């Protein structure tokens, strides 16, 4: 960007010429200048040479624009009397030798036509057109959305200055509006309709005015997955892993030839672990289905499996409570039902297979959606930490439970040993 005070100077020398407002100016020696200066800087408005002012009587500076006309100062050469208008008294320094003035602390309102006139008769005149601009601050780009299928709007903004020339580039190629790309708000906004993978890239906003240019680049990444999609991905991944571990454990246990030799307490711990993993996988799958409903809306293909999963999780939960011998008095009638007993025996293996199948379908669909954007790797990396944390919480829950379970069993064993000793003593 140009530094404050840098200016553009155009000199048109002519004995007769038109000014900016169209009035005809005739002078013995005519000159017209155009200056461009930065806000709050100072500008030197040139007068004439010392030779030009010999035998002259008065120097007058005048400012005008549109319907505004203001005198700046009058200087009587012979008496060396200077009279300044109140508005310019503290902002203008006058050079008596050549009639130049230094206008300080430029404001936007100082833009306009400055005229110096020497003598009232047989006068000499000079006109200077001054444009004052606020230097552009470094621009920044604001993006409203960056998901596949949405309308993405990139807005280029500056905190200071008024840009008169704005254009956009992508990968060093200038962009023009078409059916999908629209330039709005005097090119300040670039709108991409139904964003897709190939819209990813580096977009540069170039802004400029008469003082110079400045630009800012933004790396646009079109994400295939929204927050809801990421929850579905995380829930499906957790459900798949928990169900796979549970089913693998059951298959391994069923193939053990010496399973009859396992202590009943060890068997209960193993079965409780399988049930816990099965319940965890079903809960994760329900969460994934709830967010799938939010994304795609209600449909039979989602609601029917969701109802089946809820029924299965109820059966598995009751079966788990039976293993832990907790709250079973509330389910006495259900436990006597032959159909329930059959369902209870196959509940965990069935829930594992069901969860593995459904979670795989969800994962495949999510990966297809993610591939529509250009952030597949980032989307997957974003769910690694949540999945690891939830898995750790499940493992911690099992560890805490087994710790409490062992303490309770030890207390029961100690009580049984003590009762046995008392019986022996009584018999003796």
Automatic annotation (TrEMBL):
SMART domains: IG, IGc2. The chain crosses the membrane at residues 231-254, 275-293, 299-321, 342-363, 383-405. It is found in: Membrane. It holds the Pfam family V-set. Keywords: Glycoprotein, Membrane, Signal, Transmembrane, Transmembrane helix. GO terms for cellular component: cell-cell junction; membrane. InterPro entries: CD2/SLAM_rcpt, Ig-like_dom, Ig-like_dom_sf, Ig-like_fold, Ig_I-set, Ig_sub, Ig_sub2, Ig_V-set. It comes from the Eukaryota. Its main location: membrane. Residues 139-221 form the Ig-like domain. Residues 1-18 form the signal peptide. This is Ig-like domain-containing protein.
